[in-house]
Amino acid sequence: MLASLIFTLLLLTSMEVDAKFKSLHCTVLDHDFGELLLCKLKAISRFRNSISVQYKLKQPISKLFIRLEFFKRANGWRPFLYNFTANLCDFLARNNNVIISIGYAYLSPYLAKNYSCPLKVIENELLECKNFELDINNLRNRFPIETGEYALQLTFIAKNKVGLTINGSIEYNNYREH
Ligand SMILES: *[C@@H]1O[C@H](CO)[C@@H](O)[C@H](O)[C@H]1NC(C)=O
Ligand SMILES: *[C@@H]1O[C@H](CO)[C@@H](O)[C@H](O)[C@H]1NC(C)=O
Ligand SMILES: *[C@@H]1O[C@H](CO)[C@@H](O)[C@H](O)[C@H]1NC(C)=O
């Protein structure tokens, strides 16, 4: 009796928060830069999924700018909180952008390689993010987000050209708020 009560409580607690990826789009804008090999959203269970992206670079790069645009869905996608463009290395070196620092720490276990600055990405190098799963509890501790749909669009810019955009959305339900 007690055991089943505890079990039910545990189940309810874990069910209160539910978040997973909803969409993933990768768009190659400049084919001279590289080639997209994989851009995939994969279901693990009803409640969990992961994303994988593979991109093969055709040119060496030493400087990469990245634009982050956040959106929240409310009658279509509306800009939300942040929109900025940064030289990745400037921020990683100074460690002064909390979003990029958190994002990089969060993503690095899923990357095929540890990148460091100054960037030295060689021709034909495969950039890969594999089986990246959403860890909503980790995010929620830092950003008190409400139930809803959110999207993040990443734009990769090198040599003053946009090479690739990746945008993904998540659906987040916090049942305690209802
Ligand atoms: C973000 O900023 C860029 C550059 O200023 C702009 O072109 C873009 O439209 C902005 N995005 C959003 C969602 O507001
Ligand atoms: C990257 O660095 C971390 C910490 O130094 C290490 O645990 C991890 O295995 C490294 N990853 C790769 C792909 O080398
Ligand atoms: C993500 O990209 C797709 C395809 O280009 C587009 O339809 C969608 O509106 C984009 N989402 C956001 C939040 O920009």
TrEMBL record:
Coiled coil: none
Residues making up the signal peptide according to the UniProt record: 1-19
Entry keyword Protein biosynthesis: no
Keywords of this entry: Signal
Keyword RNA-binding (UniProt): no
InterPro entries linked to this entry: DUF1091
PANTHER family referenced in this protein's UniProt entry, alphabetically: DAEDALUS ON 3-RELATED, DAEDALUS ON 3-RELATED-RELATED
Protein name according to UniProt: GM20600
